Hints:
By secondary structure, this protein is mainly β. It contains no helices and 34 strands. Mean pLDDT is 91; it is low at 1-37.
Amino acid sequence: MSLSPAPRRASRRRPLGALLAALALGCAVPASAASAAPFGPTPPHNPYAGPDGTATMHGDTGSSDTTPLAGPGAGTLTSSRTALASACPTVLVGADGYPVALCTPIFGQVPTVHLLDPDDGSSLASLKLTKGSLLGGVYAYIDHQDRLVVADGSRSLLRVGHHRDDDGAWSLRIDRSLSLASVIPEDDAVTGLSPDWDGRVWFATGGGVVGTADDTTGTVKALSLPAGERVANSISTAPQGTAVTTTHATYLLTAEGGTPTIRWRKEYDRGSARKPGLLSWGSGSTPTFFGPAEGTEYVAVVDNADTAANLKVYRTADGSDVCSVPVLRAANGPGSENSPVGAGRSVFVAGTYGYPYPAVPEGAGASVPTSADFAGGLTRVDVRADGSGCSLAWDNALRSAAVPKLSTADGLLHTVVRDPLIPGTKGTSLLDPYRYVQIDPASGQITRSTKVGVGSLYDTLQMAGTIAPDGAYLQGTVTGVLRIAAR
């Protein structure tokens, strides 16, 4: 049954307290005012999702990787770690202010939901889900009633609510469940899911099944994409439709009567093999909706071309090309497993070529070459005002170890970088230091940073961070969740 969310906490500055794309995974510099021009608009709010900026791994259902919340402000930056012995790629926050993390334990790898204390990040309650594929415990979202929506290994769509008992103790319970087994083969599993503007939940499986589910009526409808095309990342929804990027092409689909229908399909250069630092043979992008008028006029992905990674921008209306721009050239790392950041006319791409993931999904195939140094790289590309193409704004070799988030409130990019143990080198080790950084999106330069830890316990594994309502930056690691704040 559907239950109301817990009462909203009073808004206040909370005291300081103490992901996986692959397993399932200092001193503060004085801040300077961001010189970037305002970015926006961002995709419109989805009425069936939680708050923009915190409802999905990529901020909103359009996967813009933006947030309307300001990150850690003036004051001394400090960090603490909640140790969960799990990789926690998804850390979300509902309207009631309580963070919910979807994690995969190192031992057993059974996806587990944690309700976190917003004051110190400790786990208030946990719930184990049915184990599925490696990527089946990664993507989820918070709905408009503060429930975590996720598909588990039993091929069921779940809404997990958090509830407070009369004695004050918290618990996590499955409020609603709907089987998707009628359209998903037994050897397949849901990779990504997102709500549309009619309240249906769209989902895509690793094997290329795209469907819609209405868990109020029990209706499930699906479409199989061409044989051989796999979905290795999440999906994105906007009023115009649902964007899905497979290992071969990007699609926009709509649901006539609830049945998925392909509006357009655009192939991209998937290269000759999977690259080191990517988790599939193809684009590593969750497609990003962005645009200067409605926030959804364009769709962006990064391809997997052999010699260079190219940002591909399409018009949402018909899939026509806006531009194809080589990115990450300064770092000489032709690959990105991360969703692009998009706001207004600007797109930011972070490189992951050579990132040392401890595991890759089944069927990902061998990488060519078998390994490489972590190149990193961060590039900004702007669509021209008349929509006639794109221009490179800047390109650098910054080594982001997480999916950056752009705050439209403070005008900064927020992420965690992985520094080499030996300065000036590109190698990685189990003793690498990690820093939380704030970046001026106008120049690509770091304006403020603080060390968050040294060693593999702090590996952020190219997972996405989330800015909480109190300004704390919550970042999943291979062993738990970091909480970075200012005091």
